[in-house]
Amino acid sequence: MCSETGSAKPTVMIDNARVRVTEWRFAKPGDNTGWHRHEYDYVVVPLFDGVLEIDLGNGERVTAPMQNGVPYFRELGVEHDVINGNDFECAFVEVELLEPKPEA
Questions:
Q1: Which of 10, 46, 70, 87 is deepest in the core (most CB within 10 A)?
Q2: For the domain with range 2-86, which CATH number is right: 3.40.50.150, 3.40.47.40, 2.120.10.30, 2.60.120.10?
């Protein structure tokens, strides 16, 4: 994920030819990833129960409920800024699918 400056803290945990795994930590309400476009398909695994606010641009903002450990998948091309909509610290793990699995 390429992002403009945001206040959430990304920690890359795995980065190889097939996947990039990043923990995104939002220390306080309103912390955000910064505006970005996803260049790969990805899976997000929330590490909390609560909500994220998603700024879709053009003044459109939606609230996305999150459940601890329940993943969701999105395809490449998504553009947004992800914002902590809770009154507590929260985090999620993002797994970017960089390359398809090699043929056996």
A1: 46
A2: 2.60.120.10
